[in-house]
Amino acid sequence: MSTDFQAARAALGARLRDLRVSAPGGRLTGTQLADRLGWVHSKVYKLENGRQTATAEDLRAWAEATGQPGATEELHARLGGLESHVRSWRRQLASGHRPVQDAITAEHARTTTLRVWENCLVAGMLQTPDYARAVFTRHADLMQSPRDTEDAVRERVRRQEALYDSGKRHQIMMWEGALRALVCPPPVLAAQLDRLLSVIGLDTVELGIVPFTAPLKIHPANGFWIYDERLVIVEDWHAELWIDDAGSIATYLRVWNTLRESAVYGAEAQRVIGEARRAL
What we know:
Protein name: Helix-turn-helix domain-containing protein
Number of helices: 13
Shape: elongated
Radius of gyration: 23 Å
Domain HTH cro/C1-type: 16-75
Strand content: 5-15%
InterPro entries: Cro/C1-type_HTH (IPR001387), DUF5753 (IPR043917), Lambda_DNA-bd_dom_sf (IPR010982)
Number of domains: 2
Pfam family, one: HTH_31
Distance between the termini: 44 Å
CATH architecture of the largest domain: 2-Layer Sandwich
Largest sheet: 7 strands, mixed
Order of helices and strands: HHHHHEHHEHHEHHEEEEHH
């Protein structure tokens, strides 16, 4: 089991133990609580020690049995965080890249306005098959995950049909470094840059480039995707972070808007992409 999931489950167990020992009517033993709930004692032990995952009903019953029903909402939020907020690559890639692409496709389908920031790779929504193939292959090597490269490439390219959906908007920004990073052979990168040039002018796509020479009000850190204003996905080496609390989403929107002040669009973006193309 991945360490991020287990750590969150252990933290939930510690919180359950706190509720048991701080019961308003006096500290409850594990046996006493199990009797109140009609459970075997071992279930209380396993939940408190992070050896079993509680259900939403288990948490509601625990809060009520310890005389603290007001803690139910907090416990449910912690339960949601076990799987939804920190998604380790080891766990996600256990069956390959295709399931990860399927999950992202589902979020795209629910989204009207997608904002993307990438600092070192061409955004997935604009990748050519050959470029995507190179990215997936290298990531599978790094993560030592099953090879389902062609399935993942097909799903990523299929998702790009949304670029031509008049009901959706794609606001994509990339640092100039993403245009020049040789994560694939030079001919593949050349074709990828041609692809970027071809989407400039689409009424559903706003493609901005932050040039190396642009004054920056904030450093171009790791990539993130903002789905409407309900979800942010951030990629790190060990995991994806799925962030849905309003305060954090507001932070990423501020970061997005700050980076946008340094971006160029239209003919100026074409010039920066063209210079990277000629440099190959």
